Write the structure tokens for this entry.
Amino acid sequence: MNDVRVTRMAETITNYSLNLKVGEQVLVLASVPALPLVREFYAAALKAGALPFLRTLNPELDEVLYRHGSDEQLGFVPASDRLDIETCSARLAIRGDENLATLTGADPARLAIGRKARKPLMDIFMERKGRGELKSCLTQYPTNASAQQAGMSLADYADFVFSACFCDQPDPVAAWKKLSAEQQQYVDFLDTVKTLRVEGPGTDLTVSVAGRKWVNSDGKANFPSGEVFTGPVEDSAEGRIVFDVPTLFQSHAVEGIELEFRGGRVVNASAARGDEMLQSGLDTDERSRFLGEFAFGLNYGITRPTRNILFDEKIGGTIHLAIGAGYPETGSTNRSGIHWDMIKDMKEGRVYADGKLVYEGGRFTV
């Protein structure tokens, strides 16, 4: 894709999202179709004096593994994977697969073996990131597979991606700094809140966020972004919630998720579609039934679901909660081999902070 927006994207990730410095080792994880963006990022990282190195992802090999591998082989984690995450200064993951359904036929129970085996890597990643030792960014390169999943032509999908990333503008960094300042107002307010209650169709859920830190996600860890999030107190979630935005988890479509919490733990769960995958995800490990994240989507330039969580969780007028691992920088202590974001449209919903209505119809009222 010979497009100036790809160059802007690479330069913005290099100089704003990751803010690369001389001598920093940068791990790049990407599949082959994303190489045009990898090439531009590689050049920008070199100009910044960083030390980029590439690990190529191939989902088709994952399909072979989960089709033919033994339990021992499914649980094998190369020592190099651990070394990479322990030693790199920055990490860029670029989504851009040719086929998003490579694991659709995989047994959810076998997928769970792989998730459990990689939990120690997830723990290292979360802890280093929380201590500020590891800068990380996740982004998307437009491919036909992602466009088809979103119900768009490739040209329309590329426009959607670059617009969401502000790379259709002459100065993307200025646009991200503007959004950051707007979101910081909500962070400053939410840092004073102890309890949140979410109400809406089929939903009445209360969580404690007392003593937790809210994070302004402004195009650094995710690109694009546009959300504020925290880690709820682990044993605090009480009530029910319905997630009405469809999601994909390890290539499996899961829709109409309903969760019931008691003492912070999911005690009842169902999905109108993909229930087996939902139950497998919840049973990943002993902490996968607890919440690791509560967030408000604030990017009102993203107006429709595309079955890509990187974009969908940022939709203005939504909230999302994640079961499993929480981010240590928020104060969360939940550790798990899973982090599964689930999204709720709030156009008919409300959020109360310490008993006061602060969010209604998809927007803050404070």
Observations:
- The mean pLDDT is 96.
